[in-house]
Amino acid sequence: LESFNYFDYEGEVYLSPSKSIGHRVYPMERDLRFYWEEQLQQKMDDNVQKIQDDLHRALTEWAKSKGEGEDYSENKHILRFNPPGHWYEIPNLMKNGVLAGMLRDNENLKYLLCHNIDTLGAYVEPALLGMHIAGGSCLTFEVTPRRIEDAGGGLAKIDGHIRLIEGLAMPREEDEYGLSYYNTLTNWVTIDSLLDFFGLDRRLIMEAQENMEKQNKIIDSIRSIEKRIPAYVTIKNVKHVWGSGQEDVYPVAQFEKLWGDMTALKDLKAGYVAVSRYRGQQLKEPSMLDIWANDGSFDYLKSKVSL
User: Fold this and answer.
1) DSSP-derived 3-state class of residue 143
2) CA–CA separation, 148 vs 43, rounded Å?
3) Which CATH code, of 3.30.70.2120, 3.90.550.10, 3.30.420.10, 3.30.1490.10, is assigned to 83-228+265-282?
4) CA atoms of 37 and 70, how far apart (whole Å)
5) What stretches of the chain show up as alpha helix (H) in DSSP?
6) What whole-number distance in Å separates Cα of residue 36 and Cα of residue 157?
């Protein structure tokens, strides 16, 4: 930011240190079998498929020999841990004092806009903020019409309750394609409503930095909501470097909680607003650059910033 003069932004910049971390574990045999055998996979020719099946059997035996579900204790220390999911990011603001600083510096601050860093088209749109305020919701999530390449869940009606559902929570991967709207995860937050939902208030948040009892109150309140949020088990391939430049790739399991699952809590008022593809599209990997540059997304972004 300093190298680019904060992109000519003259307001305050707040950095939120993480206060949560997850420890990876050796995967369970049943999780590996589901990951390799039940999910959609590309069909190989017979010889390649045989080699891949042999590799999967060897990795399954490796996991069993290490102890299924035991803490992953090999490799570099940094690769033994993982971010526990974006559910923790806003609660982190409450725990680490950043929200307190924001409220102290901006007495009239009432709303937050939260979005993924790869949602490049997201910005503070007054009309959307007005819709959020008029709706009286604690959280208002932005959704966008789904395309075939979108993965990650979307808007659904489950047992009569409209909510966001993660792709990881669906029985079959192909069920995602039955959803009409994709979850961008961009969301507007009413600060006081969210604090009240957690059993907190802005005064307690601002006084907690100097009071251990109030800090513990914040932590306990966050944990009470955290227990109501489902945890997802995901398999990640981790490189293990050994010897003189030798490396192997092993599957490990990690646990994540996701912010969109807040909408499953029926005592929290959540709203939804459909936005344009340009505003909600996420640039997740370099292979998407060509599409992004040619479908109008880049021109949309240029129109919203001064270069």
Assistant:
1) strand
2) 20
3) 3.90.550.10
4) 23
5) 29-33, 46-66, 89-95, 98-105, 126-135, 191-197, 202-207, 212-226, 277-280, 289-294, 297-304
6) 30
Residue spans of the domains in the chain: they are 22-81+232-260, 83-228+265-282
Say how far apart CA 31 and CA 235 lie, in whole Å. Answer: 8
Helix (H, G, I), strand (E, B) or coil at 109: coil
Q: Which SS3 state, helix, strand or coil, does residue 294 take?
A: helix
Mean pLDDT of 192-209: 95
* Beta bridge partners of residue 255, listed in sequence order: 233
In single-letter form, the type of residue at position 61 comes to E
Q: Give yes or no for a contact between 120 and 129, defined as CB atoms under 8 angstroms apart.
A: no
**Phi first, then psi: what are they for 226, rounded to 5°?**
-55, -35
The pLDDT assigned to 77 comes to 87
Q: pTM for the whole thing?
A: 0.88
Cβ neighbors of 99 (< 8 A, separation 6 or more) are: 93, 191, 205
For 35-89, what is each residue's pLDDT tens digit? 887 766 667 788 888 888 898 999 999 999 999 999 998 888 888 999 999 999 9
The amino acid at residue 69 is G
Task: Say how far apart CA 288 and CA 147 lie, in whole Å.
Answer: 13
Q: How many residues does the chain have?
A: 307
153: left (phi over 0), alpha (psi -120 to 50) or beta: left
Which of 126, 161, 153, 155 minimizes the C-alpha distance to 142?
A: 155
What's phi and psi for 175, nearest 5 deg? Answer: -65, -25
Residue of 102, 166, 111 whose CA lies nearest to 136: 111
